[in-house]
Specification:
Oligomer: single chain
Number of strands: 10
Distance between the termini: 49 Å
Shape: globular
Number of domains: 2
Strand order of the largest sheet: 2-1-3-5-7-8
Strand content: 15-25%
Length: 221
C-alpha cells in the first residue's frame, strides 16, 4: 500500500479534505449526503495541508452514460486538480458503472492510485485492504436519524415482521441476471419478500419468461 499511499500525510491525525465545488457543479442528492456526512464529522478539515485523505467534489456516483446523473469530462476535471498527484491519498465514491446491458466496471476516467469506495464491485477488481465495499443505497435513504432498530440486546431473531425485503429490477439477460433469478428461490411470501419487475430496457418483452407477468403484477402492488 505504501507504493500508492503517502502515510506521512496522516502523521498528524486522520483528517479528510473535501474539494470545494467547481464552477457549475451540482452534485446529486445522494452525493451531497456523502459529502455532508464527511463535513459534519470530527475528521473533516478545510486545510488541505492537514489532510490525510482527499474526497472529490465531482460527483462520480453514477457512471452509467445513459443516466441523467452522468457527469461529463470527469477525466479533465480531475487532472486539473492541483492536489491530485495521480490519485494518491484520494477516495472516490461510486454506486453505478457501465451501461445496460453489460454494466462493466469502467468509470470513464483513470482513478490512478486512488482508493475506490464502490457498490457491487467484482471480486476480480476489488483490492483488499485498499478499496472499500459500500452498499448500494437509494436517493431516498435518510442522511441521518430514522427509527430506532428493533434489536434488543442479543435477541435473535429480532422482533420484526420481515427478515429480508428486496424490490427492484430482475435483469432477464446480461450481468446480474443469474444472481437475481437465484434470489427468487428464497422468497417465501412471509418474512422474506422479493419483488421484481421484468420491465428493464427497451426490449425487455423479447426476453419475457413465464414469471414476468405475475412478478410485474406483484411488484406494482
Amino acid at each position: 500500500m505504501d507504493t500508492c499511499f503517502d502515510f506521512q500525510r496522516c502523521e498528524r491525525g486522520f483528517k479528510i479534505y473535501v474539494y470545494p465545488p467547481q464552477k457549475g457543479e451540482a452534485p446529486s442528492e445522494s452525493y451531497q449526503k456523502i459529502l455532508a456526512a464527511i463535513e459534519d464529522s470530527r475528521f473533516y478539515t478545510t486545510d488541505p495541508n492537514q489532510a490525510c485523505l482527499f474526497v472529490l467534489s465531482i460527483d462520480t456516483l453514477d457512471r452509467d452514460q445513459l443516466s441523467a446523473q452522468y457527469v461529463h469530462n470527469v477525466r479533465a476535471r480531475i487532472q486539473s486538480l492541483p492536489l491530485w498527484y495521480e490519485g494518491r491519498n484520494h477516495l472516490i465514491f461510486n454506486l453505478y458503472s457501465g451501461t445496460w446491458p453489460d454494466y462493466t466496471e469502467e468509470l470513464g476516467f483513470d482513478i490512478g492510485q486512488a482508493m475506490l469506495a464502490k457498490a457491487s464491485t467484482d471480486m476480480d477488481n476489488f483490492r483488499p485492504h485498499f478499496d472499500v465495499s459500500i452498499p448500494l443505497f437509494s436517493k431516498d435513504h435518510p442522511q441521518k436519524g430514522g427509527e430506532k432498530g428493533y434489536l434488543n440486546l442479543n435477541n435473535v431473531p429480532p422482533l420484526r415482521k420481515y427478515l429480508l425485503v428486496f424490490k427492484g429490477k430482475r435483469y432477464l439477460t446480461g450481468i446480474g441476471s443469474e444472481t437475481r433469478n437465484a434470489l427468487y428461490h428464497i422468497h417465501n411470501g412471509d418474512d422474506i419478500i422479493l419483488l421484481t419487475t421484468c420491465k428493464h430496457g427497451k426490449d425487455w418483452e423479447k426476453h419475457k419468461d413465464a414469471r414476468c407477468d405475475r412478478d410485474n403484477e406483484e411488484y406494482t402492488k
